[in-house]
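Thread: Newbie trying to understand structure tokens

Hi all, I'm a second-year student working on a class project, and my supervisor (Dr. K.) asked me to get a predicted structure for one chain before our next meeting. I've only ever worked with sequences, so writing a 3D structure as a token string is new to me. If someone could post the tokens and maybe explain what I'm looking at, I'd be very grateful. Here's the chain:
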Amino acid sequence: MSTTVEPILSARNLTKRYGRVVAIDNADFDLYPGEILAVIGDNGAGKSTMIKALTGAVQPDGGDIRLDGKPLHLSNPQEARDAGIETVYQQLALSPALSIADNMFLGRELRRKDMLGKVLRMLDKRTMRGIAREKLNELGLMTIQNIDQAVETLSGGQRQGVAVARAAAFGSRVLMLDEPTAALGVKESRKVLDLILNVRARGLPIVLISHNMPHVFEIADRIHIHRLGRRLCVVDPKSISMSDAVALMTGAMDPGSLRAAA
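---
Reply by user tm_fold:
Sure, no problem. This is what the structure looks like when written as tokens:
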């Protein structure tokens, strides 16, 4: 990545302690416009805590987070969403009994603009259905025909698609994806990967947290390797092998032996 391009989301010297346990140890992070940045690391490396700090779910004990070069202080996930940072967690956080349209606008419901909306607080279901359909179509989710069907009737891949579409619809700056293909089969994983590439093609930068190395190497522009609570290095997937990436994650290889990505 060119040094003349400023990161859209960055962090410096992030720290987080739980008693004597240091979860994040002066960690750095950089996400550049229009890229897919994969974040990988062994279990317990601290990558999840770092991502939670970047999305308001955890408050770091120290360090600096910046969005578009400006200091960003997040007290909770809602403040991250208000800043344009959307996260799709592995659990999806969808309500199975509600419709696709209702899930798309869960917590963001639109009220009617007439007196029924202002006085009786009635929801504008027609507008929400239209926007939900539009967002699904934009991302190529044409197999979902009925926007009013319950999410519990969808396949795993379709549910993941709805979650990603919801995040992409409201995430104006950054999209974070936590293990988006972990519980999916080969065919549905392929659809989700295509969906991620489609989101990136629309200009939204993506952070992909994943243990699936083939997926990481297929779609990531850069790979952030996290080890022992901090960023070990950032590498170019085109200039490193999967085995070398695993060796870096586990400490079997020193990053000095590789040419790190800028």
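A couple of things are worth pointing out once you decode it. The longest strand covers residues 21-31. Residues 9-95+156-161+170-257 form a domain with the Rossmann fold fold (CATH 3.40.50.300). Feel free to ask follow-ups in this thread.
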